[in-house]
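Reopening this ticket.

The earlier resolution said the output was attached, but the attachment link was broken on my side. Pasting everything inline this time so it's all in one place.
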Amino acid sequence: MNTQHEIETGTEDRIVYVRPVAVADLPDEVQAQVGDHETLYAVHRADGERLALVKDRQLAFVLARQNDLAPVAVH
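Inline output:
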């Protein structure tokens, strides 16, 4: 049986943050691939490393959950 401490530690490692990103703030080579979107959604690890950029918020949450991660919205 897991103790509460073990459960919390495992969850912390799996938390990712979903936040909107203005396409205009991305590098030119990324902007060229985006098309007509003005905003994308980034999935980040707790240390700030960007794991993915996707076209909408719902897809960001689905992607995180499919990879056994626990997404949290950042405003």
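Reporter confirms the inline version is readable. The helical segments are 4-14, 28-34, 57-66. The chain has a mean pLDDT of 86.
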